[in-house]
Amino acid sequence: MVEPTYLSAKSAAAANRAFYRAFEARDVEAMAALWLDDPSVKCIHPGSGVIAGLEPVLESWRCIFENTDAIEFEIKDPAIEVVGELAWVTAVECVRSTSHGETFTAEAAATNLFVLRDDVWRLVLHHASPIARRFKRG
Amino acid sequence: MVEPTYLSAKSAAAANRAFYRAFEARDVEAMAALWLDDPSVKCIHPGSGVIAGLEPVLESWRCIFENTDAIEFEIKDPAIEVVGELAWVTAVECVRSTSHGETFTAEAAATNLFVLRDDVWRLVLHHASPIARRFKRG
């Protein structure tokens, strides 16, 4: 079972990269193609509540893309786990974004969850949150 | 397959409630018992980066519990999905917390991911993020 799991992790990593390519391209059609077409899909953007269902999720991406002139990601420490037909990636997104003439950089913690359907990994959940602090005792 | 899935969703919902009971009790032992003992587990608290591995995750809970005098959750709109031996819950956490004599309320969006091991749902990922804004066009 080692090789299939390895291949699955590799293909899940490729799906994860495709997600960030669609984000950087601000391409709603490319983004739509990555998601499972199902009412159960969920998206949580930094600062947002839970957005449920493919159409509301795609509407949120349209809104972000319309308000973003350029965006680039560096994905740090991606960790990929595969169990059966599910794969999830956690990573730190180092974001450089330009909106309304202003450029800013930020870090976000991200969870991306994929389900394997007809040999294709489909996004069922994206959860990203701003990184502001570290846990230290005392 | 309807009944097993239903039972799985019910038992995953019970595991999710046990997580918030351990959180409210600020009980590290109860919290530890809910997680898979595996280096792959991940925890992302509101504002934090990705905390990886059981010991660092439990250390983060100790830190939170030591700095919290009381905490209560109301869990809104929990949505539970089960695929094979994985289950995930998204929900809005309505939090009422007292720390260092001050009480505050907040809302967080949460993703909890469980894996079924020996007929027990074990947490492999908790991701919570502050809710600050809504997506509206225009």
Key descriptive features of the protein:
homodimer, 138 residues, alpha+beta, six-stranded mixed beta sheet, 3 helices, 6 strands, globular
Itemize the secondary structure elements and their pairings:
Two copies of one chain form a homodimer.
Chain A: H1 2-25, H2 28-34, E1 42-44, E2 51-52, H3 54-66, E3 70-83, E4 86-99, E5 102-117, E6 120-130
Parallel strand pairs in A: 1-6
Antiparallel strand pairs in A: 1-2, 3-4, 4-5, 5-6
Helix pairs in contact in A: 1-2
Description:
Two copies of one chain form a homodimer. Chain A is an alpha+beta fold and 138 residues long. Helix content of chain A is 32%, strand content 43%. Chain A contains three helices and six strands, in the order ααββαββββ. Chain A has helices at 2-25, 28-34, 54-66; strands at residues 42-44, 51-52, 70-83, 86-99, 102-117, 120-130. In chain A, helix 1 (2-25) packs antiparallel against helix 2. The radius of gyration of chain A is 15 Å and the shape is globular. The mean pLDDT of chain A is 93. Chains A and B meet through strand 2, helix 3, strand 3, strand 4 and strand 5 of A and strand 2, helix 3, strand 3, strand 4 and strand 5 of B.
**Given the C-alpha coordinates, what overall shape of chain A results?**
globular
User: Which bin fits the share of residues in helices of chain A?
Assistant: 25-40%
Ends of chain A: how far apart?
A: 45 Å
The main sheet of chain A orders its strands as 2-1-6-5-4-3
How large is the radius of gyration of chain A? 15 Å
User: Structural class from helices and strands of chain A?
Assistant: alpha+beta
Oligomeric state of shown chains: homodimer
Largest interface in this structure: A-B, 46 and 46 residues
